[in-house]
């Protein structure tokens, strides 16, 4: 069960303003994190001309949850992608369908797509024999056109179109997109990446995960960040520091578990140092960009 914490909610526009009284109540309970999640993932309708296979998003390849700044199981998160530039690792990303990976705009800002590549099924980047990886080149970079407007790292989101579709299976399963209209305040988020295990340290050779509580935006604005936090951002971490994402984790996912399904609610974006008191990790709030994501991935198959 996710841990509930007392915190003010992010005030967002009610998307069900024209719905019934019951739908309004359901939406409000969802925003404050009190409505129980279903153990099923709402299906996404794929265009009939794509002949998409049946598949399931967001199921990790394990039966036991191990979180808190530890190494993941090998290929535990089958949607996890290591981005390389000139054959060197630099950022994380998440597979969301058969043709696109989701990452942070700052990871690919000004980069040449011909030097970018996405590596799948990696775990220990120092061991080429541990897993059978495969690589896709990048056909196009779709960085949000409003990246950086209204504040540094605002709209920090990008899509990378792969040069060849990925076969969706248990080993290359996409992560689920989150529902709109929820703040996720008070739930535990799971950040995953190959980032440094300490401030100014080297990136980790092995994929790691950490569990951090998601804060409300009003609470985050009471930290050292003040008004640098926009509605397109999400904060997660402890007041005293302790656990955090770090350098090299950028672009990777922050998950919330809905039943058995992992939803990518955040993208590792920025922060002051790593695990510093009064400076939680800051993530792109993915459910603010669902319309943008779907509009730019109409040629792909979702699970």
TrEMBL record:
Q: Which organism is it from?
A: Hypothenemus hampei (Coffee berry borer)
Q: By its UniProt entry, which PROSITE patterns does this protein fall under?
A: TRYPSIN_DOM, TRYPSIN_HIS, TRYPSIN_SER
SMART domains (alphabetical): Tryp_SPc
Domain Peptidase S1, by residue range, is 66-298
Query: InterPro entries from the entry?
Result: Peptidase_S1_PA, Peptidase_S1_PA_chymotrypsin, Peptidase_S1A, Trypsin_dom, TRYPSIN_HIS, TRYPSIN_SER
* Record has Thylakoid as a keyword: no
Q: Which UniProt keywords apply?
A: Disulfide bond, Hydrolase, Protease, Serine protease
Q: Which Pfam families match?
A: Trypsin (PF00089)
Protein name per UniProt: Peptidase S1 domain-containing protein
Which Gene3D superfamilies does the protein's record reference?
Answer: Trypsin-like serine proteases (2.40.10.10)
Q: What is the lineage of its organism?
A: Eukaryota, Metazoa, Ecdysozoa, Arthropoda, Hexapoda
Which residues fall in a coiled-coil region?
A: none
Q: Any one Gene Ontology biological process term?
A: proteolysis
The terms under GO molecular function for this entry are: serine-type peptidase activity
